[in-house]
Design goal:
single chain, alpha/beta, 7-stranded parallel beta sheet, Rossmann fold, binds 2-amino-2-deoxy-6-O-phosphono-alpha-D-glucopyranose
Length: 242
């Protein structure tokens, strides 16, 4: 059953979600964490870095798999999710080199890269805890609204709304990549625990649709209503319509 955890604001949401991740690492030090990018998880990553520095949280046996990556951006581009994860988390905690994984958006054969990523996740034993944000159109990872729930890692055309929302990070809208590689909904649903964070009044409508409306691939996050162990940590503003 989907659980909704109410938070006062962004800081409270971040602390609550970081506590859930921290509990996961304490209970299973060699867990596999599924990680997300975007503005929503930034406060969580700051907390995890702080607790790691204090000696309260140990990442030495943790392995990570990220949800997605833009197609075509070099790793060193400050807009790549590789760069985002290194600068906002990986470079600041004691995760060993080689313990972090992202799909490669510059692989020479993208079909092979999708298969490699799925095989990697399987080899790691699946995801223990998957962290998610939510796009304004209900996307999770880069699983955009479409006619079905894609199972495994695949290539997507980004929705116009997503390009519009993400252009704030780029010099211009034209610089936003049109395609991405993303973990599938099947893999996300197979995670043993899911924590989705949502903050701000601009997420209120999609939070209502996704978690209090019908389950449909036109709102990809709505499938989490069927996950046996999923928690939505949302602040008052994001919950203002429910
Ligand atoms: C991006 C990411 C998603 C993220 C979403 C929301 O497109 N691929 O993983 O959840 O946008 O981002 P934000 O948290 O900045 O609103």
């Amino acid at each position: 059953m989907l659980k909704i955890l109410r938070a006062a604001d962004y800081a409270d949401m971040s602390r609550k979600a970081a506590n859930l991740i921290s509990a996961q690492i304490i209970l299973k030090p060699d867990c596999v964490l599924g990680l997300a990018t975007g503005s929503s998880p930034l406060g969580i990553y700051k907390k995890l870095i702080e607790w790691n520095a204090k000696g309260d949280l140990d990442f030495s046996a943790v392995r990570t798999v990220n949800l997605d990556e833009y197609l075509g951006l070099p790793k060193c581009s400050d807009q790549s999710y590789y760069y985002f994860m290194h600068s906002n988390l990986f470079d600041h905690v004691n995760l060993p080199a080689g313990a972090t994984n992202l799909p490669n958006g510059r692989a020479s054969n993208m079909a092979d890269e999708c298969a490699r990523y799925d095989a990697l996740i399987e080899r790691l034993g699946g995801v223990d805890l998957q962290l998610l944000g939510i796009g304004h159109d209900g996307h999770i990872g880069f699983n955009e609204p479409c006619g079905e729930f894609p199972k495994g890692t695949h290539i997507v055309e980004l929705a116009e709304e997503t390009i519009e929302a993400n252009k704030r990070f780029f010099a211009s809208k034209e610089d936003v990549p049109r395609k991405a590689i993303t973990m599938g909904i099947g893999t996300i649903m197979a995670a043993r625990k899911v924590v989705l964070v949502a903050s701000g009044v601009d997420k209120a409508e999609i939070v209502k649709k996704a978690f209090f409306g019908p389950i449909t691939p036109e709102v990809p996050a709505s499938i989490l209503q069927l996950h046996p162990n999923a928690v939505v940590v949302a602040d008052e503003a994001a919950l203002s319509l429910v």
